Amino acid sequence: MLQARIGDGNAFLPSFWLGADAGVFLTGTAGNTPILGGTIRWNIGTRIALHGALRYMPSFQVRGRGEAYGGVAPEFGAGFVWN
């Protein structure tokens, strides 16, 4: 995962972070598949942040049969941060 702050760092002003991540979803079978995505985080104040992410996982089947899993996976949330 890579992240970079946009603009000057200031603990008392809002700031934006952009990130990119890549990984592998391990199923223990031939269904292992990569996961790729991007993240944006908005530090509203000193310790509160909102974030959103959009990731993509190519479709795969467990043991090569049955339901197919994968596609676009959005994520939204809020939290407390300590940078």
In short:
The protein is an all-beta fold and 83 residues long.
What number is the mean pLDDT? 84
The strand order across the widest sheet is 1-2-3-4-5
Major sheet size, sense and barrel closure: 5 strands, antiparallel
SS-based class: mainly beta
> How many separate domains?
1
Describe this entry's structure for a reader.
The structure is a single chain. The protein is mostly beta strands and 83 residues long. The protein has one domain. It contains no helices and 5 strands. The protein has a 5-stranded antiparallel sheet with strand order 1-2-3-4-5, with no helix packed on it. A hairpin with an 8-residue loop joins β1 and β2. The chain is elongated, with a radius of gyration of 17 Å. The model has no long low-confidence stretch (mean pLDDT 84).
List keywords for this structure.
elongated; 65% strand; five-stranded antiparallel sheet; mainly beta; 83 residues
List the helices and strands and how they pair.
Blueprint: E1 2-6, E2 15-25, E3 33-43, E4 48-61, E5 68-80
Antiparallel strand pairs: 1-2, 2-3, 3-4, 4-5
